[in-house]
């Protein structure tokens, strides 16, 4: 009786083992093919002015399964909300079974303010979008703004709403002419002074700063290496420049 029961149990175990082996083969072969066929070998990143391709890739590939082209594409296309400082959004395109193309859209930052040793960056509408402990070199710091509080993703309430339009006009022209501007300062009359390294340029108060910044570009090219304060508030083609130490 015991032998019959033993043989019966063995027979059941063999049948179960065979079925498990068949199931493993049935599932394992397609899985192996899927893993091998969709190996992520090529990622192309375009659009970002703040991150290199390697920096973006390192932020996105952090698990073993991320090296599978299809999993990577579906994960970031439909399921994962990407949060990278100074990145507004990303778009993903499946190029082929081994390649994905990524388009990065940077947040449009027009300036920053310093508060309690941190730097807070705002967009054209005055919304605080990011903060860092160290200032980013190519974003001008704005001085002379008065505010009561600072909170990420909230509008910076300042003494005059129109100042954001002025800052936007200034930063657009600064970018257009490739000016190296460290700070944009407003005095109590909302007159503008730019700190361009060794050069300070007093621009005064204007409706737009397009023309005066075009002239400033030419002046900076001529006085490179000097330490000057340039008064451009007269509204003429003749400006007063004097050593900054005398200002």
Keywords:
elongated, Rossmann fold, transmembrane, 3 domains, cell division, three-stranded mixed beta sheet, 12 strands, 247 residues, transmembrane helix, alpha/beta
What does this structure look like?
This protein has 247 residues and is an alpha/beta fold. It has 3 domains: 1-37; 42-106; 111-246, Rossmann fold (3-Layer(aba) Sandwich), CATH 3.40.50. The chain is built from 5 helices and 12 strands. A 6-stranded mixed sheet has the order 7-8-9-10-11-12, covered by helices on one side. A hairpin with an 8-residue loop joins strand 11 and strand 12 (240-243). The chain is elongated and about 70 Å long. The model is unreliable at 4-9 and 22-28 (pLDDT under 50). This is Cell division protein FtsQ. One of its GO terms (cellular component) is plasma membrane. InterPro entries: FtsQ_DivIB (IPR050487).
**Which architecture name of the largest domain does CATH use?**
3-Layer(aba) Sandwich
Low-confidence stretches: 4-9, 22-28
Number of DSSP strand runs: 12
- Principal-axes shape call: elongated
What is the percent of helical residues?
A: 25-40%
What is the string of helix and strand elements?
HEHHEEEEEEHEEEHEE
GO biological process, one term: cell division
Protein name: Cell division protein FtsQ
InterPro entries: FtsQ_DivIB (IPR050487)
Transmembrane segments: 20-38
């Amino acid at each position: 009786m015991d032998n019959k029961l033993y043989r019966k149990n063995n027979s059941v175990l063999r049948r179960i083992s065979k079925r498990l082996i068949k199931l493993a083969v049935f599932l394992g072969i397609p899985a192996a093919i899927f893993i091998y066929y969709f190996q992520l070998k090529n990622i192309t990143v375009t659009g970002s002015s703040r991150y290199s391709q390697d920096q973006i890739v390192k932020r996105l590939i952090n698990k073993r399964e991320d090296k599978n082209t299809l999993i990577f594409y579906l994960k970031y296309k439909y399921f994962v909300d990407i949060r990278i400082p100074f990145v507004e959004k990303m778009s993903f395109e499946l190029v082929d079974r081994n390649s994905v193309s990524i388009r990065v859209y940077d947040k449009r930052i027009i300036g920053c303010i310093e508060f309690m040793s941190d730097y807070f960056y705002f967009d054209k509408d005055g919304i605080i979008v990011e903060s860092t402990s160290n200032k980013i070199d190519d974003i001008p710091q704005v001085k002379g703004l008065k505010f009561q509080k600072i909170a990420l993703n909230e509008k910076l309430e300042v003494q005059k709403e129109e100042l954001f339009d002025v800052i936007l006009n200034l930063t657009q022209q600064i970018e257009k002419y490739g000016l190296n501007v460290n700070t944009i300062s407003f005095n109590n009359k909302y007159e503008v002074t730019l700190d361009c390294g060794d050069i300070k340029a007093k621009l005064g108060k204007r409706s737009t700063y397009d023309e005066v910044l075009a002239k400033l570009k030419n002046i900076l090219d001529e006085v490179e290496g000097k330490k000057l304060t340039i008064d451009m508030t007269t509204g003429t083609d003749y400006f007063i420049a004097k050593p900054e130490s005398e200002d």
